[in-house]
Amino acid sequence: MPSLNMNADPKRPTLRKNRFSLPSLEGWLYVLPSFLLFIIFLFYPMVRTVYLSFFYTDTQGKPLSFAGWENFTTLLSSTSFLTSAKATFLFVLYTVPVGVILALVLALLANQKMKGIGFFRTIFSSTMGMSVAASSVIWMFIYNPSIGIANKILNFFGLADMHFLLDPNTALLSVAIATIWMNTGFTFLILLGGLQNIDSQLYESARIAGVSSYYSFRKITIPMLSPTLFFVLTVTMINSFQSFGQIDILTKGGPTDSTNVIVYSIYKDAFINYNIGSASAQAVILFLCVFILTVIQFKLGERKVHYQ
Amino acid sequence: MKKLWMVSILCMLIFMTACSNDAANTEESSGDGKTEVIFWHSMSGELENVVQEVADGFNAEQDEITVTPVFQGTYEEAITKFNTVAGTEDAPAIMQTFEVGTKYMIDSGKIQPVQKFIDDEGYDMNQWEKNITNYYSVDDTQYSMPFNSSTPVLIYNKDAFKEAGLDPEKAPETYSEIKEAAKKLTKDDQVGFSILNYGWFIEELIAVQGGLFVDNDNGRSGNAEKAVFNGEEGLKVFELISEMHKEGTFYNTGQNWDDIRAAFQSGKIAMYLDSSAGIRATVDNAPFEVGAGYLPVPDGVDRQGVIIGGASLWMAKDIDEEKQRAAWEFMKYVTTPDVQAQWHLKSGYFSINPAAYDLPVVQEEWEKYPQLKVTVDQLKNTIPSEATQGALISVFPEARQKVVSAMESLYQGVEPKEALDRAAAEIDQSLEAANRKNGSQ
Q: What residues of chain A lie within 8 A of the CB of B7, using their CB?
């Protein structure tokens, strides 16, 4: 089924012609303040990062001599960067699908009309109100091998202690679980908003037609929610790629680099080891990865999105 | 729909309050003709108050200079901030930097060695503890003023020792004694021994045997080119950890200081290595008797002593001479016996000025906390050498990460020799890159 915006394509060139004509100058003026902010805090640092990624730098981040592609080739041939890349992709894989499905289930539950539902909505979205630092500290205590509640629960069921954050096999998964918990509030809230915007008449007609609730979920809820779901998926994926706080607080990239995701590796290289050139190169690679994945997501995902 | 709005507004409010934190106030207020000295430090929690007290004491004593301590986050964060303002008028007059940042600060060229003021004034440096000033003295130049210095000590649970039939007044001193004690102490939920996954402890355990960390006399007679900690001394340390971990008498507590301390307080581990600066809080918080002992050595090895850890105070170069003088005045004040006594007792860090130890206040506290005295004795008994002076390398923070990775790989069953060699090879690369950079500057 062709989507609506594909039909809109042929019209675009005519729009573009008018973009820089006089009347739109006023429009540009309106945009100017935020555009300036973007240039200062986003575009300039981005260009500078790309620039620095081709240089050897001193400890203050001043370029010393041109390095060509060397920063990139060293990275791509170093095992520690490849470990980082693998950890990053695994982390995204662990957090995004589970996080979105969990939030969707909670949103469906909270979308019922019943007494006291406001309480549950507040609870489900409450993690949104917590900073990453505060929630990470909570999870740090939960996972603590000697005094944490996670091990107490395991012991209660007769299971042996686990070293959640200290074992390279479980560390990434443990951080992922904490991250899912942290992100649920935001995802839940957006999805609930999407659910509430669905016209209730559609469900009423479905009920009159006597279809099963599963059928109406598949044929009404999912298509009508698809723009929201698509937005949530894209945003959580990008977020997940950029996760930093919880890793810094929970594992510091350890043990044996198993949670050293690219963002953390950039931080370590730039601000602990002062290799600004190499850190910039990593940032460029991460940017390209996120960019490409987002484009793919738009190309593939948007076909399934139903815009009203 | 209305409800949803309420919820989202509520969430926004919580979110905003959670995110807002007051930025450090670095405004200068020198309208009254006093010289303002900004002092950047990384002492958090209780220690921040102690630093403030020291500055207040100085400000009250004279009326020419005002010292304003500003907390700048951890040592790593503070050094990054310093980096951005170094060499400008905005640089703080005094900057506290951790010991492994020493070479980095010297190489930056943005600092003024305090030696200049020592020479100008004929200041008697002999009143400072030699074993501490040694670390911050390079090529016979005193670069910075030691401020908070600490060393590693063995901390143990005396009650657990009694229960296991060990003498609680005698701390294990050699590796075999540690192993034996740990075996007896490991039962039920309790594990015998632990070391934090932190490079500093490995450096210390090597230095106490007289081993070097890098070549060129620990980087003190020239730029270090190769890591040498994978020699015989390092291997003994790693073998100890590896063997004990396999036996189940060594507990891996990760990289977090709070975690290892919590494990000790909760009785999960009976012996561990800690910084002397943490000792007082540990004794106060523990629900059992706490003992302190020297850093253990392998059997048949003569104890060489410990490297000084902690941090020192640096003076910025490109600021007014007047401010530098004022900063120097404050540094001198900090090293007086009275201030040092107060500092030692409240923080657990060493006194830079040994005269402080003879003051009655210190002697009284030592009666109450004999553990503090153990740390001081260990430092006094240190034999000065390149090994105990500590390594001087610019890529120290990076080197520590590699050592931590090597420690962590031990728990995964990697052979000690292999883990050490891998870390050493990686550090060699970093050293080479750093030397190349310095060469091209």
A: 118, 121-122, 125, 189
Instruction: Give chain B's radius of gyration (CA, Å).
Output: 23
Q: Is B254 on the interface with A (CB under 8 A)?
A: yes
**C-alpha–C-alpha distance, residues B260 and B280, integer Å:** 15
B162: Cα within 13 Å, side-chain hemisphere = 8
Contact A146 B266 (CB under 8 A): yes
Contact B95, B78 (CB under 8 A): yes
Name the residue of chain A whose CA is nearest to B7's CA: A122
Q: pLDDT tens digits for B1-33?
A: 455 555 555 555 454 444 443 333 333 444 567
Q: Note whether A45 contacts B: Cβ–Cβ < 8 A.
A: no
Sequential DSSP letters for A172-189? HHHHHHHHHHHHHHHHHH
> Could you report the per-residue pLDDT of B190-201, keeping only the tens digit for each?
999 999 999 999
Of A59, A131, A252, the CB nearest to B83: A59
Task: Report whether pLDDT(A104) > 70.
Answer: yes
Q: Is A281 on the interface with B (CB under 8 A)?
A: no
- Asked whether residue A19 carries a pLDDT value surpassing 80, the answer given is no
B329 vs B30, B117, B147, B332, CA distance in Å?
17, 10, 14, 5
Residue B244 has pLDDT above 80, yes or no: yes
Q: Compute the distance between CA of residue A273 and CA of residue B426 in angstroms, rounded to an integer.
A: 13
Q: Which residues of B touch A144 (CB under 8 A)?
A: 259, 262
Asked if B20 and A138 count as a contact pair (C-beta separation under 8 A), the reply is no
| E strands in A1-72 | 55-57, 63-66
Pick the CATH number of A78-304 from 1.10.3720.10, 3.40.718.10, 3.30.450.20, 3.40.50.720: 1.10.3720.10
The C-alpha of A166 sits at a distance from chain B's nearest C-alpha, in angstroms, of 6
Partners of B35 in the beta sheet?
B65
Strands B269-275 and B191-194: parallel
For residue A238, the Cα-to-chain-centroid distance in whole angstroms is: 3
Residue B19's pLDDT is what? Answer: 44
Q: Do A272 and B405 touch (CB under 8 A)?
A: no
The model's pLDDT over A199-208, given as tens digits with 9 standing for 90+, comes to 888 888 888 8
B368 contacts: CB under 8 Å, gap ≥ 6: none
Residue B255 has its nearest CB partner, among A131, A147, A254, at A254
Residue B149 has pLDDT above 80, yes or no: yes
CA A293 distance to own-chain centroid:
12
The whole-angstrom separation of Cα B218 and Cα B173 is 26
Domains of chain B: 35-150+309-371 (3.40.190.10), 152-305+395-439 (3.40.190.10)
Print the SS3 string covering B173-233. CEHHHHHHHHHHHCECCEEEEECCCCHHHHHHHHHCCCCCCEHHHHHCCCCCCCECCCCHH
| B30-42 mean pLDDT | 81
Whole-angstrom distance, CA of residue B94 vs CA of residue A38: 36
In the three-class reduction of DSSP (H, G, I as helix; E, B as strand; rest coil), residue A253 is classed as coil
